[in-house]
Amino acid sequence: MTLEREHAEALRAGARPIGWGPPLVAALSAFFVAAIGGQLTDLGPWYIALIKPDWQPPGAAFPIVWTIVFTLCAISGALGWRAVRSGTKSEQGWLIGLFALNGGLNVLWSGLFFTLQRPDWALVEVVPLWLSIIALQVFLWPRSKLASALLAPYVIWVAIAAVLNWEIVDLNAPFG
User: Fold this and answer.
1) What is the pLDDT of residues 68-120, one digit of tens each?
2) Among residues 82, 91, 92, which one has the least CA distance to residue 145?
3) What is the rounded CA–CA span in Å between residue 137 and residue 150?
4) pLDDT tens profile 6-46
5) What are the strands, taking DSSP E only, across 7-154?
6) Element spanning 22, H or E
7) Quick check: bond before 63 cis, omega within 30?
């Protein structure tokens, strides 16, 4: 379903227009997570010295893909809020909680991998990070299929990152 069609159906069902609040909060939240993760990402001598697999995406791809992923997350969050705002407080709490959990896990991965220089710990942490995205998709699907689908590139990118993380651990262990 297209964004326009989903929006039209929501308005026909009696939903109020979403306004600027939820998209602004979603965008600021995504920016906050991206900014903290970026601050924790040090591509200095330690990272450069790591042996990486030949298939690793080029360095220029990472900021481009992350910008797209965080933009889609912000849109998903705003659409998700629109879908649950007339629902129960429990639904609203779950939506906020799942996005907050995911943001926290995203930042934690960057801190473990880059700041603490522990790709082995980050490899363990990437599993709950990936599962938190799946949990968001499962939660959102019955409420807004579009909001759920917008998270698919995030799931794919974190899966790629997890395999890359695995390869880096395999090629460079032990750490610490």
Assistant:
1) 999 999 999 999 999 998 888 999 999 999 999 999 999 999 999 999 999 99
2) 82
3) 9
4) 666 655 665 555 566 777 888 898 899 999 999 999 999 99
5) none
6) helix 21-40
7) no
What is the C-alpha separation between 95 and 99, in angstroms, rounded?
6
Judged by DSSP in three states, 96 sits in helix
| Residues ≥6 apart with Cβ < 8 Å to 109 | 37, 122, 125, 126, 129
Q: Which residues contact 15 (CB under 8 A, 6 or more apart)?
A: 82, 86
pLDDT at 24: 81
CB atoms closer than 10 angstroms to residue 125: 20
**pLDDT mean over 39-54:** 95
What is the rounded distance in angstroms from the CA atom of residue 74 to the CA atom of residue 67?
Answer: 11
The structural domains of the chain, with segments of one domain joined by +, span 63-176
- Angle in degrees, CA 147, 72, 135, rounded to 5: 50
Number of residues that this document lists for the chain: 176
* Encoded amino acid at 129, one letter: L
By C-alpha distance, which of 28, 142, 32 is closest to 83? 142
